[in-house]
Amino acid sequence: MPPVALITGASSGIGLALAQHLLSLPRANWHLILADLNPPPPSSSTSFPSNRTLFVRTDVASWEQQAALFRAGFARFGRLDFAALNAGIDDRDDIFNSIEAEESKGLEGPRKPSLRTFEVDLDAVYYGVKLAAWYMSRRKPGSSAAGGEGGGGGGVKGRIVITSSSAGLYAAPAIPQYCAAKHALVGLTRSLAPAAADVGITVNAICPAVVVTGLAPAGLLDAWPEEMRTPMSTMMRKERDRGRIPRTRRMGV
N or C: where does the chain have the smaller number of CB atoms within 10 Å of the terminal CB? Predict the structure, then answer.
């Protein structure tokens, strides 16, 4: 059977590039389960053949919607080899800059902050790990994740890759909610990886610096030297690994 990957945040940025990359691998014949609030843009729709892809509109912050996503994908393709838990958003609340605005409205106290960033960037990833582990563990005995361009093999049931950020390693004063969530993902990865390895699943995180995506705050790319950005080609590991998803470590970020 061809290998199957599930990608959240698949309609833009890193998720879209990953989906296109996997479909472009000539020998692997990847089949994809794509999740996002909106389908891939029309300009890229021809890149996603209906016989190899399934798009499910999903708010990843909803356990019920994520569970339905995994169910639909498994029902369609019958297996899950690789899960890229990639969906993310930037901050939805600004503690200090909101004080003056709230005072000017004569409020007796601050409004309850939005925690949507944590729901999407952290809670949803935990949901995704739980669901991916469940469906990867349903692989038939003796079967392992596809090798070569299909993911590395080696008796592994499945591979989970979490999109963290360099903001998961360093402070990011302009986006504290995003930074806190991405730090938590690094800790989550390091903590889950040993137990996951014991059941034949790898859990790793990537921590890119600034990548040219729609998530980058206005003005950031102009202020960030090009040589300090993370190219999308590096995210896909094309040059070093010749198009193959690299073998991942027992645990690591």
Answer: N
For the stretch 171-207, pLDDT in tens is: 988 899 999 999 999 999 999 999 999 999 999 999 8
| Domain 4-241 of CATH type 3.40.50.720 | yes
Q: What are phi and psi of 134, to 5 degrees?
A: -60, -50
Q: What average pLDDT does the segment 147-152 reach?
A: 53
- Do 43 and 12 meet the contact criterion of CB atoms below 8 Å apart? no
Query: Does the pLDDT value for residue 236 go beyond 80?
Result: no
- The per-residue pLDDT for 161 is 98
- Judge contact between 205 and 164, C-beta under 8 A: yes
Q: Contact, 18 vs 54, CB < 8 A?
A: no
CB 245 within 8 A of CB 27: no
User: Which residues are within 8 A (CB) of 124 and not within 5 positions of it... i.e. 6 or more apart?
Assistant: 8, 60, 61, 66, 85, 87
Smallest CA-to-CA distance from 230 within 247, 215, 245 is with 215
Q: Which residues are catalytic?
A: 178
Structure tokens at 125: 């990833």
Q: Once rounded to an integer, what is the mean pLDDT over residues 62-73?
A: 99
* 89 vs 9: CA distance, rounded Å: 10
- Give the residue, 73 or 212, on which the prediction is more confident: 73
Range list of H helices, the chain: 13-24, 63-77, 97-104, 116-118, 124-136, 176-198, 220-223, 232-236, 238-241
Q: Where are the domains of the chain?
A: 4-241
